[in-house]
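To: structure desk
From: M.T.
Subject: fold request, one chain
Message: Could you run this one when you get a chance? Sequence is below, nothing fancy, just the single chain.
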Amino acid sequence: MSSLLKEEMQKMLFLPEGEKLKNFIEIEEPTQCRHFLCVSVLKNKEVQLCVVQCQKHQSSDSKKFKRSHLVDCYQKIEVWPLQDLVMLDGRNPDIDDPCFLMHFGTVRFVRAVSCAAKYSMARCLAALNSSHCQTPLTLKNFDLTYIEPAFMASEQGDCTVLMRVCFYAFNLVWLSMCPAP
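Reply: Done. Structure tokens follow.
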């Protein structure tokens, strides 16, 4: 589902402006429509973050059949260059909190739909910041074991996190089967 959504946003919003959508997460905002925090790379290789609002609009297919259906309409409502991001604050790494703070000139509060989405965005921003801005991104209050790659094959991001969790679970099961002296 998310790959179809990414494809649709890329085609309708980012491609016409010559941008490439690298990552996005759904976020919760006070208004009723869906919102996404997106990271894209511009033609000049600059990286930007934006909040995209998705609204349903009625459109008709043809005048002959007078059929209508809802179509997603995407609009950027906030935009920041990645080099203006001073710090990404996860607020509290010890609890499952999907909220984080982005420090630009001002502080932008973001509530992701899940903690996994928050970490996915943090991994993407850290990687793009080091490759495009050549500086490490300041991360505060994040569990860095889920962000920094431990070995070369960990570029898959979420798959690595899942693999680590399975490995830890296997070890716990194995240890629980051992008799205690």
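Reply (cont.): The first strand starts at residue 20 and ends at 28. Let me know if you need anything else for the meeting.
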